[in-house]
Amino acid sequence: MIAEVVPVVGPIVVAVPATFLAYADSPVLALKIALFYFVFYQIDAHYLMPKIMGKSIQLHPVLLILSLLIGAKLFGILGLLFAVPVAAVCKVLYKHLWHFSEDKKVQ
């Protein structure tokens, strides 16, 4: 879905109209739809995405979640968007600088 390009607002933008349309048919159906979207989003956001992103950029899922939380707390939506790339850059810099300092100690 196009709206899910924006990771935080996308699922809400998709779920709200679906829930309202289901409510027009039956309140029970609307509750089921809302519950489905809630459970699906929780599984996607807290389990699948950290695993997938962690494997693709080789960061531990806990570090991904922490970077997202810190980014959101400090910079809001923009922090969420830039948290993972910044964490990946920090990891590369740390590895590069750590190995550079170890190489100097050996000589």
Weakly predicted, low-confidence segments: none
Tell me the overall shape. Answer: elongated
Q: Could you say how many structural domains there are in total? A: 2
Mean pLDDT: 82
Helix-strand sequence: HHH
- Beginning-to-end CA distance, first to last residue: 55 Å
* Total count of strands: 0
**Percentage of β-strand residues:** under 5%
What count of helical segments does DSSP give? 3
- Helix and strand composition category: mainly alpha
Helix content: over 70%
Radius of gyration: 20 Å
How does the major sheet shape up?
none
Walk me through this protein's architecture.
The protein has 107 residues and is mainly α. It folds into two domains: 1-57; 58-107. 87% of the residues lie in helices and 0% in strands. Pfam families: AI-2E_transport. It is found in: Cell membrane. It comes from bioreactor metagenome. The chain crosses the membrane at residues 20-41, 62-88.
